[in-house]
């Protein structure tokens, strides 16, 4: 399955259930990493525009790049009238943006779907001198019993499940190979609180989640309903999470 169709049929639930990123990260990007008002940022793999919206709130000029038509349409419907927002149907490897046209590039919850070296070359092409890249994720706490139980449900029902965030080995050198030099890591606590609908929707928004016409869909959703009942307190489930960013130059 190509990345342009990976989230077909999931745009609405993705937009409704996916969380934003830690406000503390956004403050750090603005004050320490050059994501200030007027900065032109390419948000590559922008999905339904969750991170794009937070960049707009910083005053950035956002060039959203998303290959999936359905995901991009949701972002354009919600953000299309916002000053500073534009959207294109490019990919990480071929953004369609002009040479040396942006000050920063970011990929939020998306780098694990990309060809790292092709994306690196594209970043070098579109960035202005002195530009930098930020790779951002919301990371579940792997020590959490809830997170471990969630992974077990995904493994049981989803043949395409290789681990959260595409099974990327963040303890290995995938990020180091991308930057080919120094980069910095920042991490901010960002636990996520869900009601029942939000938690089940979050798990149904995953690329590997069974579609509604898949025989495994009902059992998959039911298992997450059960996990909610087991772990929620006062009808709220808290998922231990941090927002992490890897930031550096690719010159």
Structural summary, described in words:
By secondary structure, this protein is α/β, with parallel strands linked by helices. The chain has a domain of 170 residues: Vaccinia Virus protein VP39 (Rossmann fold, 3-Layer(aba) Sandwich), CATH 3.40.50.150. Helices cover 36% and strands 22% of the residues. The protein has nine helices and nine strands. It has a seven-stranded mixed sheet with strand order 3-2-1-4-5-9-6. Helix 5 links the parallel strand 4 and strand 5. Helix 1 packs across helix 8. The model has no long low-confidence stretch (mean pLDDT 93).
What characteristics describe this protein?
about 250 residues, SAM-dependent_MTases_sf, Rossmann fold, seven-stranded mixed sheet, S-adenosylmethionine-dependent methyltransferase activity, single chain, Methyltransf_11, alpha/beta, Methyltransferase domain-containing protein
């Amino acid at each position: 399955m190509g990345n342009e169709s990976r989230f077909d049929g999931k745009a609405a639930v993705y937009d409704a259930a996916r969380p934003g990123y830690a406000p503390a990260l956004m403050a750090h990007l603005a004050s320490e990493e050059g994501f200030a008002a007027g900065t032109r940022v390419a948000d590559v793999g922008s999905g339904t525009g969750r991170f794009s919206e937070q960049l707009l709130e910083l005053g950035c000029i956002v060039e959203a790049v998303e290959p999936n038509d359905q995901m991009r349409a949701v972002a354009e419907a919600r953000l299309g009238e916002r000053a500073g927002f534009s959207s294109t149907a490019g990919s990480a490897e071929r953004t369609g943006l002009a040479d040396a046209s942006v000050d920063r590039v970011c990929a939020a919850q998306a780098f694990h779907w990309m060809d790292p070296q092709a994306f690196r070359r594209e970043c070098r092409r579109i960035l202005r001198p002195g530009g930098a890249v930020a790779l951002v994720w919301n990371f579940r706490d792997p020590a959490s019993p809830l997170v471990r139980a969630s992974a077990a449900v995904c493994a049981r029902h989803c043949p395409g499940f290789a681990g959260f965030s595409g099974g990327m080995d963040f303890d290995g050198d995938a990020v180091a190979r991308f930057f080919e030099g120094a980069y910095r890591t920042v991490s901010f606590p960002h636990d996520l609180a869900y009601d029942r609908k939000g938690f089940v929707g979050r798990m149904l928004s995953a690329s590997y989640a069974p579609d509604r016409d898949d025989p495994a869909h009902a059992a998959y959703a039911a298992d997450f309903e059960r996990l909610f009942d087991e772990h929620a307190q006062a009808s709220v489930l808290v998922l231990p999470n941090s927002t992490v960013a890897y930031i550096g130059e690719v010159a």
